Amino acid sequence: MAAQKINEGLEHIAKAEKYLKTGFLKWKPDYDSAATEYGKAAVAFKNAKQFDRAKDACLREAAAHENNRALFHAAKAYEQAGMMLKEMQKLPEAVQLIEKASMMFLENGTPDTAAMALERAGKLIENVNPEKAVQLYQQTANVFENEERLRQAVELLGKASRLLVRGRRFDEAALSIQKEKNIYKEIENYPTCYKKTIAQVLVHLHRNDYVAAERCVRESYSIPGFNGSEDCTALEQLLEGYDQQDQDQVSEVCNSPLFKYMDNDYAKLGLSLVVPGGGIKKKSPATPQAKSEGAEATAAGDEEEDEYAGGLC
């Protein structure tokens, strides 16, 4: 079966090359027909799991489409070549080709397709190179935002923010979450704004910036419904505990369902939050017996002082 598909692919390659040849009666290569044959060859090689050959056929198809000024089809072929590289576990090279395809989609005036290609590239590289994935998700968000598709934009920004938190790039994460929050406010999704405020505060406290964390809460009072919400109450308790170096209070807030059931990356920030200096523990109340013993010791001390109250004889 594989050998049959390989031979089929080679036949299509031969036909494509024939279409590209010029002669006395044929002055111009037939790029359109050649591209079609290269595309068929790529499919045959892919079915035979000859991914390297399939990638080469896709690249030839893309070049033929470019020569024919068919940018959209060229971009699709580059994207397919990238997917063949993915099958070969050559992820950085795959992402490079998919990025090239997305730029061509933009040039062709199809931003939605460009954004989908960039998002696909981000997913491919996320576990190997999170920094590159952040860049790709932010690019995708920008494309959607330019098209006024804010819901899609904010979803991609959220992915970028979580990756930044995971990589402990807190300064960048704080800015990214603020951008998310602004968009959610614009589309009037206020409950999600509250959750983004919690995420912001946790990030700022991990940056050891209490002032910025407090400012986030203060600014959020202007968001409809925030003041008096359980999110607001919890954040006020968290900031109070952090300011007073009360680790028990901070841990109690961060272990509440409101914090524990956030996105995993933010829940982990809450569980690992330590107040400055390691915090102080609340003193356990003295038992009645200890209190009475203390009172007796004080009385005895007073009696000893009375013996010498008049001075030495």
TrEMBL record:
Membrane topology per the entry is: Peripheral membrane protein
Q: Does the keyword Protein transport apply?
A: yes
**Region forming the signal peptide:** none
Q: Which domain of life is it from?
A: Eukaryota
Q: What GO terms in the biological process aspect are recorded for it?
A: intracellular protein transport; vesicle-mediated transport
Q: Where is this region: Disordered?
A: 281-313
User: InterPro entries given for it?
Assistant: NSF_attach (IPR000744), TPR-like_helical_dom_sf (IPR011990)
Q: Name one GO molecular function term.
A: syntaxin binding
Q: Which Pfam family, any one of them, does this sequence belong to? A: SNAP
Q: Which UniProt keywords apply?
A: ER-Golgi transport, Golgi apparatus, Membrane, Protein transport, Transport
The subunit field of the Swiss-Prot or TrEMBL record says: Interacts with RAB11FIP5. Interacts with VTI1A.
Q: Which PANTHER family match?
A: GAMMA-SOLUBLE NSF ATTACHMENT PROTEIN, SOLUBLE NSF ATTACHMENT PROTEIN SNAP
Q: Which family would the database say this protein is a member of?
A: Belongs to the SNAP family.
UniProt protein name: Gamma-soluble NSF attachment protein
Q: What is the lineage of its organism?
A: Eukaryota, Metazoa, Chordata, Craniata, Vertebrata
Q: Which gene encodes it?
A: LOC114031893
